[in-house]
Write a structure and sequence with these properties.
- This is Isoaspartyl peptidase.
- Keywords: Autocatalytic cleavage, Hydrolase, Protease.
- One of its GO terms (biological process) is proteolysis.
- This protein has about 325 residues and is an alpha+beta fold.
- It has a single domain, classed as Glutamine Phosphoribosylpyrophosphate, subunit 1, domain 1 (4-Layer Sandwich).
- It contains 9 helices and 13 strands.
- Helix 1 packs antiparallel against helix 2, helix 2 runs antiparallel to helix 3 and helix 8 packs across helix 9.
- It is globular and about 55 Å long.
- It starts with a strand and ends with a strand.
- The mean pLDDT is about 95.
- Bound molecules: aspartic acid.
- Aspartic acid (ASP) binds next to strand 8.
Length: about 325
């Protein structure tokens, strides 16, 4: 049997253990497990990695617990500008949208662009219009807002006025969702979706929709989805760098992904993490913060989720 594998993240901006109620932690972990099952259904029936990562990301975009879609961060003007990308490692086809405000599931708009093939990236109102013209669900911007994000914006703006923004917790700063998969045909895919960081300037675009930076997949090498301050992921072209280290230097996924997070990005003192899967179904999920919402299903079918150091085994699906 050819290996299949799936890994997801819900961002490295995880609260202190005490920052959420027990019920909220359990709900967030349950949503991670649902996202994994949604992707696994596709993979276990012989479906495409591309469809699996999209299915997983949609569940995370619809969950209020993660910074993407419903529950996304607010920018400095109190508005949502969402970024997303998806990439097919088999063909290197990709689609991406940035600063969109009305598409319920930005990853679907990225996928529509991938299928279209003539464009790769659309931004702002033009991307919203494109999604509408392609029959995707359009929502009022307040669909994305949750009380927690409104409170977090107030806290970040208070930090800014007090000159203490750098000391804000990782949870106050950012988050993202993403998925990577290997399918039974040996193809890899990655997808990422985010509200960016809280209190970001209007018009700021992060790494998630930048192919090669926050989202990247190349058959034979790996698929990567990142989380953390996007400017640095773009400067280090993180996804492409990991794939290239595997391809050119024959490094293991674990080593290449760990080098980017724990060495290359470490010098900037930023929160950073990623999930990645290679052509054999190995999974890596390094992060340098107190926690990263994450989960995976190994080729054996073992489904696990985690927020901080402790990993919860949920079930075996094979
Ligand atoms: N990478 C995202 C961005 O820079 C934010 C995050 O993952 O924390 O937009």
């Amino acid at each position: 049997m050819k290996p299949i594998a799936l890994a997801i993240h819900g961002g490295c901006g995880v609260m202190a253990q005490t920052g959420l109620s027990q019920q909220e932690w359990e709900e967030a972990r349950a949503d991670l497990a649902s996202a994994l099952r949604a992707g696994w259904v596709v993979l276990s029936k012989g479906g495409r990695a591309l469809d699996a990562v999209q299915a997983a990301v949609i569940v995370l975009e619809d969950s209020p617990h993660f910074n993407a879609g419903h529950g996304a961060a607010l920018n400095a003007e109190g508005e949502h500008e969402l970024d997303s990308a998806i990439m097919d490692g088999a063909t290197l086809a990709a689609g991406s949208v940035s600063a969109v405000r009305r598409i319920r599931n930005p990853v679907k708009a990225a996928r529509a662009l991938l299928e279209d093939g003539s464009l790769l990236m659309l931004t702002g109102p033009a991307a919203d219009r494109y999604a509408e013209e392609h029959g995707l669900e359009i929502v009022s911007p307040d669909y994305f807002t949750t009380q927690r994000r409104t409170d977090t914006l107030k806290t970040m703006q208070a930090h800014e006025r007090a000159g203490t923004a750098a000391s804000a917790s990782e949870a106050e700063k950012h988050g993202t969702v993403g998925a990577v998969a290997l399918d039974s045909a040996g193809h890899l895919a990655a997808a990422t979706s985010t509200g960016g960081y809280t209190n970001k300037p209007a018009g700021r675009v992060g790494d998630s929709p930048i192919i090669g930076a926050g989202t990247y997949a190349r058959d034979g090498a790996c698929a990567v989805s990142g989380t953390g301050q996007g400017e640095f992921f773009i400067r280090h072209v993180v996804g492409h760098e990991i794939a290239s280290r595997i391809d050119y230097l024959d490094e293991s996924l674990e080593h290449a992904a760990g080098k980017l997070i724990h060495l290359d990005l470490a010098r900037y003192n930023i929160g950073a993490g990623l999930v990645a899967v290679d052509a054999k179904g190995n999974i890596a999920a390094p992060f340098n913060t107190d926690g990263m919402f994450r989960g995976w299903i190994t080729p054996d079918g073992d489904l696990s989720v985690a927020s901080h150091r402790e990993v919860f085994f949920v079930e075996r699906l094979r």
